[in-house]
Amino acid sequence: KEILEKYLFTLQWQGVIGNMHPPSQTEWEQLLTNCSGFLFYGMERFMSHVLPDWLVAMNIPKCRLVVLLDLVRSQQSYQRITNSDIYKSCLHIALERPTETAMLLSLTGVGSVIATQWYTSLQENAERLEILFENLLSFGKTVGQTVHILQK
């Protein structure tokens, strides 16, 4: 919240923050189709929150950038994901991996995808978010320049 408040003055943000409520598939669709940039900062895999068949049917070319700061695990999130994975096929779970998620988003029309590739902590994702916002919004760097900075 602190990072969002720091950069809130630069752009018009809308979405679901914190523990307001889990977004419905309709809310996910509205947020993705009505944005030029989308940020997911949350627990486990982004695609564990969104139905893959719903996503692949979307057309979201207005969304130029998707940032996925996911793959954070707590005991509670691990239990939730384990319980939901029981009912999924191996193929379905494979579609939730970072590379496959980026490909699916690209196929729907998203211009660029920045995503974590392995499990991390909330603190490390907060640091990544700060670097992203600082470079993209304050310094006006390109997505490529910003990703290069994140890789260091």
Topology:
Blueprint (H helix, E strand, L loop, with lengths): L1 H6 L17 H9 L3 E7 L8 H5 L8 E8 L2 H11 L4 H5 L3 H10 L4 E4 L6 H17 L4 H9 L1
Parallel strand pairs: 1-2, 2-3
Helix pairs in contact: 7-8
How does this structure look, described?
The protein has 152 residues and is of the alpha/beta class. Helices cover 47% and strands 12% of the residues. The chain has eight helices and three strands, in the order H-H-E-H-E-H-H-H-E-H-H. It has a domain at 24-121. The protein has helices spanning 2-7, 25-33, 52-56, 75-85, 90-94, 98-107, 122-138, 143-151; strands spanning 37-43, 65-72, 112-115. It has a three-stranded parallel sheet, sandwiched between helices. The chain is globular, with a radius of gyration of 15 Å.
Which key features would you list for this structure?
alpha/beta, 8 helices, 3-stranded parallel sheet, 152 residues, CFA46 protein, 3 strands, CFAP46
Sheet-strand content, in percent, reads 5-15%
Number of helices: 8
- Oligomeric form: single chain
Q: List segments where confidence is low: pLDDT < 50 over at least 5 consecutive residues.
A: none
Q: For the residues shown, what is the average pLDDT?
A: 89
Silhouette: globular
Largest sheet: 3 strands, parallel
Q: How many beta-strand segments?
A: 3
The ordered H/E elements are: HHEHEHHHEHH
Q: Roughly how many Å is the radius of gyration?
A: 15 Å
Decide which structural class fits the backbone. Answer: alpha/beta
Span between termini? 25 Å
Largest sheet: spatial strand order? 1-2-3
Helix share, percent: 40-55%
